[in-house]
Amino acid sequence: MDSAHNADGRLSFEPGSKVVRLPYINYLRELGSTFLNTYTNSPICCPSRAAMWSGQYVHLSQSWNNYKCLDANSTTWMDLLERNGYRTKMLGKLDYTSGSHSVSNRVEAWTRDVQFLLRQEGRPVVQLIGNMSTRRIMEKDWKNTDKAAQWIRQTAAISNEPFALYLGLNLPHPYRTESLGPTAGGSTFRSSPYWLTKVSPELVSVPKWLPMAAMHPVDYYSTFTKNCSSDFTEEEIKNIRTFYFAMCAEADAMLGQVISALREKGLLANTVLIFTADHGELAMEHRQFYKMSMFEGSSRVPLLIMGPGLKSGLQVHQLVSLVDLYPTVLEIAGISAVGNLSGHSVLPLISTSRNVSKNEHPEWVLSEYHGCNANASTYMLRVGHWKYIAYADGISVPPQLFNVTVDKDELHNVVLRFPDVQAQLDKLLRSIVDYPKVSSAVHLYNKNRFAAWRDSLGRNYTEVIANLRWHIDWQKDILANEKAIDTWITSLDSI
Q: Which residue numbers delimit the Sulfatase N-terminal domain (predicted)?
């Protein structure tokens, strides 16, 4: 399995696939099955991967944010493969257990209920490096890809045991903006002239935006905290998107290295390949970058599966999500699942054999978000052409409803026009998850965790929190920003 980071699923099929040349994704699409409607179960790194590795929705595993995810001893599908005789190897970005990511990231999640706005991310920018011969930009990913290819050649190829290899990439996640210091998040879209030639610039669109005043309050909060509320030129927006697509092309080449190693050792014909991602990337859609949103660019991910006994050139319209990978992998391996899983195997949808499970897949998918850059717990239910988004307790924050078939840009919230649809979908959502109760549990967790962290700092608390990654223009108005920080710190006392 190959898992990318921040990969927009819409690039794996037309018309998105025309924007950037992804030859190895195209290879999987031609010889395997492409799932056209695959969603993350939480549009942020660690919780989404927790869902993928555990097969459980994040409210069941209580994977609330990048700091709070699975316990280190949680049973994953890779553990079950190993127990059943598979030779296993995991390389690259794993990121599904608790305790990781920066202190800033944790505090931002714990304090999101405070009625005060500070920019938490760096303004998105692009960086051109190297020349036409510069191909290995994300060195860490390339090193792990080389290790994966080497493991295939030197271990998998000579073993009599079945094998399972997982390669987790950082690309196409934006790079840390170094000028903002060691605590900065990833807001630099970096690539080289070589990878930019893989993008068709005439097909790179400039997304439509709602006026800030017309935004949903949670989207407004996200735009502000992601440092996207100021003006951007059309050239800036197009450059950010172009560089993001170029980063996708570099990630595709890493997938190619794995495919080449399998082919070289004669393993390709009897190996199942799965390509997916933890979440997408908005790339300036809805006046945002990054993830942490239920809009398509953030919540929709690629899923392509190729292998023996599986259909070729198939496009699957069925709604699926990352929790479905756990039962799918186990069914491919002929291993019984352990415990109650949220997901359902997708094998019946793509197998050429009639001797597979006939369990029907539900006609909906669930995604939820409880982390930073969104000031309310968010729940998304996709059913047919409807996308319903509910927040918090279902009362204090208004919901959103989009017809994603006719409104592909998700600019028209029609919740007031279709009250019967809203009522029906909210009832279905509550039958899946008691979301007001979950939101309350997350709020209590945030309050208790922040209080414990604050108390652990003692007298150093004010200095530490003032030096987290708040991106404000100190040179422009030092006094005003000092007061802003003081006001924000004082407001935290209400937590």
A: 20-335
Cis amide prior to 217 (ω within 30 degrees): no
Q: Of the listed 45, 46, 228, 372, which one is catalytic?
A: 45
Q: How many CB atoms lie within 10 A of CB 417?
A: 11
Q: Is 45 a catalytic residue?
A: yes
- Give pTM, 2 decimals: 0.93
Mean pLDDT in each 10-residue stretch from start to end of the chain (495 residues)? 84 89 97 97 95 96 91 93 96 85 79 74 94 97 98 90 96 90 84 98 96 96 93 97 98 98 96 97 96 97 97 97 97 90 96 79 96 94 98 97 97 98 98 98 91 89 74 43 57 60
The reply to whether 7 falls in a domain is no
Residue 484 tokens, joined: 């802003």
Write the CB contacts of 163 (distance below 8 Å, at least 6 apart in sequence).
Answer: 86, 87, 88, 89, 155, 156
Rounded Cα distance, 162 and 334, in Å: 12
